[in-house]
Amino acid sequence: MIFSRKRAEGARHARDERDTGVLDTEETPQPSARGPYDLAEAPDAPRLDLGSLQIPAVPEVEVRVQADPQGVIQQVVLVHGENALQLGVFAAPRSEGIWDEVREEIRQSLFNDGAAAQEVEGEYGTELRARVRTPDGITDLRFVGIDGPRWMVRGVYQGAAATSPDAAGPLAACLDGLVVDRGQEAKPVREPLPLRLPREMAEQAEQQGAP
């Protein structure tokens, strides 16, 4: 799928730090200079709606999804040239982010598999970089996590973008323009948020899966 993209504009306003001693449960969404955005603050732009994730239209970026015959998406990967960005979105608590804990679990899992992971500071905070052995040979990975209001986006870069963030180019633009539709229902922390193909694509997948 090839899309075009309208660049988002706006600036994130600083949060009012004055504490009145009253818990504010109805915070007014503020515009952001870049995402990933919560649905409540997302600027208008053309996107592919996959349910909990809306992928911005970025030229020359291909969106690849793996879905079951019912249209439930198992995996989302964005591809540009030799680079790829795998995306996942998960439920999180209202009060705090979970990327620090998730990042440590990823690091420990990589260590158990014999791969050392290095923490580095990136545009979104602390990232993990690792070199792993796959059936296709040695592969570099870069794990990025972004905590939002009751959600967390995890991205995994492969290719040159895994070792050189500047090489991410259009894939980084996709991450910057991503929109999360968390929904209001309660969900266990870290549970993947549901992803579905658009109706037309789901019908096509169902027809292809029919005997």
Q: Can you walk me through this structure?
A:
This protein is 16% helix and 33% strand. By secondary structure, the protein is of the alpha+beta class. Strands 4-5-6-10-9-8-7 form a 7-stranded antiparallel beta sheet, sandwiched between helices. Strands 1-11-3-2 form a 4-stranded mixed beta sheet.
Widest β-sheet, arrangement of strands:
4-5-6-10-9-8-7
- Give the class from helix and strand content and strand pairing: alpha+beta
Q: Whole-number average pLDDT?
A: 83
Percentage of residues in strands: 25-35%
Number of spatially distinct domains: 1
The number of distinct helices, counting runs of at least 4 residues, comes to: 3
Straight-line distance between termini? 26 Å
Which radius of gyration do the C-alpha atoms yield? 18 Å
What series of H and E elements makes up the topology? EEEEEEHEEEEHEH
Quick overview of this protein structure:
This protein has 211 residues and is α+β, with helices and mostly antiparallel strands.
Could you outline the blueprint of secondary structure elements for this entry?
Elements (H helix, E strand, L loop, with lengths): L36 E2 L8 E3 L3 E4 L5 E6 L5 E8 L2 E9 L7 H14 L4 E6 L2 E10 L2 E12 L2 E8 L11 H8 L1 E2 L18 H11 L2
Parallel strand pairs: 1-11
Antiparallel strand pairs: 2-3, 3-11, 4-5, 5-6, 6-10, 7-8, 8-9, 9-10
Task: Name some characteristics of this structure.
single chain, 211 residues, alpha+beta, Protein Transport Mog1p, Chain A, 11 strands, disordered N terminus
